Every structure is written in C-alpha cells, then in structure tokens.
C-alpha cells in the first residue's frame, strides 16, 4: 500500500509528459551554447553531442533536437519519397486498412492520463490515428502492433507534427530496433528479454540469483518496458531523458536503463523474500524513481563496459535459439497432426472393413 500511495503522489508530476519544472540551469546553458548559430542541418554526431544528450535535452530545445535526430535516421528514405506521409494518408482515406479496427480500439487506451489524449474528441487522437494508419501502409509486414500507439503518441507530444511523428515511428521500428521486433511472433523482442537476463546475471549477480531463487521471471515486467521503450513506465522527465539518448545511440540505451533501474532498487528488492511480492514490486517500482541524475549515472557509468558488439552477438545467439525452438515446436505439431491423421485413417479403414463384413453376412 505504501508503494501504491507513493506512485499516486508521483503521478502528479507525470500528468503532463512535457512538464519539466526545475531543470538544471547549467545544462540549459550548455545546450544554448552548443546550439548557438547552428541550424538543424549543422548538427553533426560528436562526443560532445552524445554527452549532452545523455544529460538530457532541455524542454525548450527538445523539439528541435528530436527533429534533427529523427531526420538523421530517416534521411535517405525521405529523400527517395519526399511526399511519403501525405501519400500514405491519402491511401488510408481511399482504401480500408486491415489494421484500422485494432488501431481504433487502442486510440482510447493511449496515454489516458495525459491531457492531450484524455478526451475522445481530442485532436491529438485523430492525429495519432492518421500516423498509425500511415505506418500500417508503410510497413505491411507489421501493419499494427499494440505498443506502437504509445511510441507515436510520445513522438506527437514532443515533435508537434504528424509527419515528424510518423518518421519518428519509422526510425524507431525500422532503424533503431532489430527487425521482427513488432512482427506477429515478436521474435526479436523475446530474444532481447533473454539478452537482458544474461546481462542481469553478469552486471548484478546477487540480484539475478535472488530472482531465480524466488522463481521471478523479469521478462513478465521488462517485456513491456522494451516494447514501448518505457513509455508510461517512468516518470516523464526520466522517460524523455532516456529517449534523448535512445534516438541518438540506439537500443543499447534501453538495456542500460533497464539494468540501471534494477541497480537503483537492488537493495530494496533483495529484502523481499517472497516471489509474488517481488513480482508485485517490480510491476510498479519504476514510477517511484526520483533521482534522475543518479539513475543516469548508473546507466552510463556503473553499467560500463557495455560494448555494442557484445549486444549484437547476444541478440544473434538468442534469436537463433528462439528460431530453432520455434522450428522444433512446429515439427512436433506437424508430427502430432500426422500421427493423429494416420490413426483416424486407420480407424476409418477398420470401420469400413467391418461394415463390408456385416453387409456380406446380410
């Protein structure tokens, strides 16, 4: 009950995703100096920019910086198809979309505590609908997957542009995250959960052993963290800071923060000696994080070294294992069906033979 009360109190500060009172004034000064005299086209990848992004982008500069980050990741596609979003919107208007029913259902489940999405008549909901429909035509292999609504909603809030939000969704799904993250079987998403467990056992061995002792499967909680990149799982200021780095550095940031969250609350979790209670705690504890600087320091300092090559190799390993397991399961199902069909045919032939004998006796 104490945890739930703390969460309810903290959600007051997260009511509006764009509210960031009390920002670090020196950080604002560093960003102002960095951006002075630069246009969006002048922003180039650099260690200085990387460091600034890890510290977080001040509210007044975030739209500009995110726009640059998204355009940097989608430049070649946009140059090939400069009117892509408008064309896809026209297609959505002209043709029924297979994903439209699920999109419509999920619209009203999106960021329900945020003032921009809380009303059924909100213009933001209609913008979100158009972005999701356009993406479903952009990537028919995915169409729509639950969770994409939250990614697109966050992009709309920050970028204040349907087209830029659409390209942000494209950047996340088609550029930053691995293929098959949002396809029907969610194979890459499942593989990432196994990778996370590997890192958890290596970076936080005491906690990993404690969770195993009490039969706690962290993927029951963490799967959603990864699928929606922490939207609605973190206080708004921490969420936006995570995304600042995520859009620049990529999906490694999600692992860093996931591990940092466990490190931040490690001692509290170790005190809980019941598996059900641990699981209940893990469902809500991310919203009780109050020290953003400490969390960021854990993510980018305490979790080092964190080489990208290791992450890529682990992903390949676990994806291959998942694919092999899936193939084994399909083979077993096929074998089962074949055996049952053979039994049915044999039984039918036996019945037919018995029927023939009966007719001869007549």
TrEMBL record:
This is TBC1 domain family member 2A-like isoform X2. PANTHER family: RAB GTPASE-ACTIVATING PROTEIN 1-LIKE (PTHR47219), TBC1 DOMAIN FAMILY MEMBER 2B (PTHR47219:SF20). One of its GO terms (molecular function) is GTPase activator activity. GO terms for cellular component: cytoplasmic vesicle; cytosol. The keyword Coiled coil applies. Signal peptide: none annotated. Residues 312-339 form a coiled coil. Keywords: Coiled coil, GTPase activation. It comes from the Eukaryota. Residues 56-250 form the Rab-GAP TBC domain. PROSITE patterns: TBC_RABGAP (PS50086).
């Amino acid at each position: 009950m104490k945890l739930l009360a703390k969460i309810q109190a903290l959600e007051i500060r997260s009511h509006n995703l764009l509210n960031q009172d009390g920002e670090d004034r020196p950080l604002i000064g560093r960003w102002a100096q960095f951006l002075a005299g630069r246009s969006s086209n002048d922003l180039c990848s650099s260690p200085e920019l990387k460091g600034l992004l890890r510290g977080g982008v001040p509210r007044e500069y975030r739209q500009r910086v995110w726009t640059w980050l998204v355009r940097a990741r989608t430049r070649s596609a946009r140059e090939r198809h400069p009117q892509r979003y408008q064309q896809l919107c026209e297609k959505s208007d002209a043709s029924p979309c297979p994903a439209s029913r699920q999109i419509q259902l999920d619209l009203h489940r999106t960021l329900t505590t945020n003032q921009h999405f809380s009303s059924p008549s909100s213009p933001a909901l209609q913008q979100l609908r158009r972005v999701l429909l356009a993406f479903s035509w952009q990537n028919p292999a995915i169409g729509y997957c639950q969770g994409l609504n939250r990614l697109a909603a966050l992009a709309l809030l920050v970028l204040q542009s349907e087209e830029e939000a659409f390209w942000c969704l494209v950047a996340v799904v088609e550029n930053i995250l691995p293929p098959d993250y949002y396809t029907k079987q969610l194979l890459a998403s499942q593989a990432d959960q196994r990778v996370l467990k590997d890192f958890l056992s290596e970076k936080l061995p005491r906690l990993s052993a404690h969770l195993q002792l009490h039969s706690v499967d962290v993927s029951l909680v963490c799967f959603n963290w990864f699928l929606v990149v922490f939207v609605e799982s973190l206080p708004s200021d921490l969420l936006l800071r995570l995304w600042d780095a995520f859009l620049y550095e990529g999906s490694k940031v999600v692992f860093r923060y996931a591990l940092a969250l466990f490190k931040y609350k490690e001692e509290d979790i170790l005190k809980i000696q019941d598996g059900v209670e641990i699981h209940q705690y893990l469902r809500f504890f991310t919203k009780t994080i109050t020290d953003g600087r400490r969390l960021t320091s854990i993510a980018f300092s305490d979790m080092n070294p964190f080489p990208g090559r290791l992450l890529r190799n682990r992903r390949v390993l676990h994806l291959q294992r998942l694919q092999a397991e899936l193939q084994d399961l399909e083979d077993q199902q096929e074998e089962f069906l074949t055996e049952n069909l053979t039994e049915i045919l044999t039984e039918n032939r036996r019945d037919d033979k018995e029927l023939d004998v009966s007719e001869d006796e007549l």
